[in-house]
Amino acid sequence: MQAQEGFMMKQFIINTCKTLVICTTLEAAALTPVDVELQLLIDISGSIDGSEYDTQLLGYSNAFASDRVQNAIIEGNIGQIAVQMIMWSGANNQEIMIDWTLIDSAAASDDFSIAIANIARPFSGWTAIGSAIEYSYPLFDSNDFDGVSQVIDISGDGTNNSGSSPSSAATAALNHIDTINGIVITDDQNVIDQYYNDVIGGDSAFLLAPAGFDEFQLAIENKIVAEIEGTVPAGVVSIPAPTTHLLYLTALIMLGVSTKTTRRSQHETA
C-alpha cells in the first residue's frame, strides 16, 4: 500500500512539473519579442514651465516621427520595439500617459508620435526622481513583450526634493531591468551630478545634457537610436564626472573598474 501511494505521489509530482513546463513555455511564446522595452519617464515638475513642457513633448514627438529613429527601429535585429511613456513630478504624482505600445513600422512610429503630441499635462509639483523610478520599473513585469533589453529613460531638470532616494530606487530597479539612462535639460551641476552618480546605471548606461530645450530633440533622437542599438550615443558627449571627484575616479580607472561597478554587479547577480 505504501509503495502504491509512493508511486502515485511520484506520478503526481511528475505530471505537475510537466504542466508547469508547458504553461511556462506557452506564456513565453505568448510574449512578443522586441529589440528593447523602452520606458520613457518625463519630468513635468513645477520647474518645467508651459513653454518648456511643450518643447519637451515636441522633442519626443518629432523624434519618433524622424526617419533616423524609424530606420533604427526597423533595422534592428528583431525590427520592433515596445515603448511606454510615463509623466512624473512629486512623490505621489506618476501617470501612464501612453501604455506599452508595439512600434514595428514607420506608420506605427508616426502614430506614436501623434499620440505624444496630443498628451495634456496631468499635473505639476515637486521633483521625486526616486519615486518615479520605484513606480515605473515593476511595470516591465506586466507587459506583453520580451525585450532583448529593458531600459528606463528618464528626463529631468532638477534635483530630488521629495519622495524616495534616487540611488536606492535605481539600485532596486537595476535588479529587475538592464539599464537606466538619463537626459538632463539644464546646466546646473548639482542636477548633473545627481543623475550621474545616483540615477543612471546598468549596461551601456549614459547621461546626456543638451545645452537647452533647443537641442533637446537631437539629443532625444541620438538617445533612442543608441538605446535600440545598445550603445552610447555617437556625437553626443556623455556627462563627465564632477570635478571634485576627479582624483577619486582616476584612481578607480587605474584599478580597472567603473564608477558603476557595484550597481552593475548587483544587477548581474540578480
Question: Which helices and strands appear, and what pairs or packs with what?
Answer:
Blueprint: H1 2-30, E1 32-43, H2 50-65, H3 67-74, E2 81-88, E3 94-103, H4 106-117, H5 129-136, E4 145-156, H6 166-173, E5 179-184, H7 189-199, E6 201-202, E7 207-208, H8 216-229, H9 246-254, H10 261-269
Parallel strand pairs: 1-2, 1-4, 4-5, 5-7
Antiparallel strand pairs: 2-3, 5-6
Helix pairs in contact: 2-4, 2-8, 3-8, 5-6, 6-7
How would you sum up this structure, described in words?
With 270 residues, the protein is an alpha/beta fold. Helix content is 46%, strand content 19%. Strands 1, 2, 3, 4, 5, 6 and 7 form a seven-stranded mixed beta sheet that branches. Helix 2 runs antiparallel to helix 4. The chain is globular and about 40 Å long. The protein starts with a helix and ends with a helix. The C terminus is likely disordered.
